[in-house]
């Protein structure tokens, strides 16, 4: 891997500074049997979300939808072109319960190979790993931990993610189940599997607001993702400001990331629900600026994502 770090978007590689204001964790398309009837599968609605985000000052959305969950990669590229918003797509694999057994069987012995192909050659049509790779290239690897543990499935996907990272340099983003097992995931990826902490992003940390654990995880050097700010039932809105303040004043400002994590049609503003992707900038950002200051919020939305999602790609 050579050259300057670049962020791999669905319209090609760009300089990290091009990201500007970034929603570091969201979904324009997503479909899981765990959320039947709430699929994000409407390109027009996704476009409306992107335009509203852009109108609020947003310039980049990182989609964490992994393999097999309706990535719609070709549509991502078209929407990015139409709206002028950078979009980063993901490869990777979610918790086992999101997939039918036949999908798990089909990829069981070649997960790392699929990740590498998505990152270097392009996402295949219809998300079929054996189809022609006509879509844009993925720019990150998304995997998932178990509830309070790194279970067998999580370890399998994280070993594959680490292998793909070593081959490509891609960052690894981790869904933490209800925000748990953060330290265990960091220890596995950055310890046993030797992934540099600067290449690891832990998501959903706001869902388990244990400040002692957060400080321990922050000390490992990984990026810390706080996302889904509208979900009061996940202890977010009323605690996230305090958590971010404590981490920033403890010297971890440079590791903090913010995202919206819109995963259902009911959470999409353009479909008559809400608050949608724009909420991150229209509501949460001014609240955080008042509490933390402009410099801290600028780091979370601009300078930190530029480092977190950049890589020295093999090709």
UniProtKB/TrEMBL annotation:
Please indicate if the UniProt record lists Cell membrane as a keyword. Answer: no
Q: Which residues carry this modification: N6-carboxylysine?
A: 142
Write down the Pfam families for this protein, in alphabetical order: PTE
Q: Which UniProt keywords apply?
A: Hydrolase, Metal-binding
Q: Which InterPro entries match?
A: Metal_Hydrolase (IPR032466), Phosphotriesterase (IPR001559)
The GO terms this record gives for MF are:
hydrolase activity; zinc ion binding
Please tell me where Zn(2+) 2 binds in this chain.
Answer: 142, 175, 204
Positions annotated to bind Zn(2+) 1:
25, 27, 142, 261
Name by which UniProt lists this protein: Phosphotriesterase
Please give the organism. Answer: Amycolatopsis carbonis
């Amino acid at each position: 891997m050579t050259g300057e770090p670049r962020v791999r978007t669905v319209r090609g590689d760009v300089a990290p500074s091009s990201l500007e204001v970034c929603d570091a964790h969201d979904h324009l398309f997503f479909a899981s049997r765990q959320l039947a009837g709430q699929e994000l599968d409407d390109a027009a609605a996704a476009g409306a979300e992107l335009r509203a985000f852009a109108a609020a000052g947003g310039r980049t959305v990182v989609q964490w939808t992994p393999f097999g969950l309706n990535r719609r990669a070709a549509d991502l590229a078209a929407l990015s072109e139409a709206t002028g918003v950078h979009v980063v797509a993901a490869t990777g694999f979610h918790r086992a319960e999101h997939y039918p057994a036949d999908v798990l069987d089909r990829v069981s012995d070649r997960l790392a190979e699929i990740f590498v192909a998505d990152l270097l050659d392009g996402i295949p049509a219809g998300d079929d790993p054996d189809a022609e790779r006509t879509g844009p290239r993925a720019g990150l690897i998304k995997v998932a931990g178990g509830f309070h543990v790194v279970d067998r499935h999580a370890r399998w996907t994280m070993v594959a993610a680490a292998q793909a990272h070593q081959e490509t340099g891609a960052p690894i983003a981790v869904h933490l189940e209800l925000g748990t097992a953060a330290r265990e995931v960091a220890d596995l990826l950055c310890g046993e599997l030797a992934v540099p902490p600067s290449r690891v992003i832990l998501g959903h940390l706001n869902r388990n607001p244990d400040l002692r654990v957060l400080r321990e995880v922050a000390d490992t050097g990984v990026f810390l993702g706080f996302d889904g700010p509208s979900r009061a039932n996940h202890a977010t809105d009323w605690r996230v400001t305090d958590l971010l303040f404590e981490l920033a004043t403890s010297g971890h400002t440079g590791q903090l990331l913010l995202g919206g994590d819109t995963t259902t049609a009911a959470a999409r503003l353009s479909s008559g629900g809400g608050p949608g992707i724009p909420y991150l900038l229209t509501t949460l950002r001014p609240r955080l600026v008042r509490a933390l200051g402009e410099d801290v919020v600028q780091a979370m939305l601009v300078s930190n994502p530029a480092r977190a999602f950049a890589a020295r790609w093999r090709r």
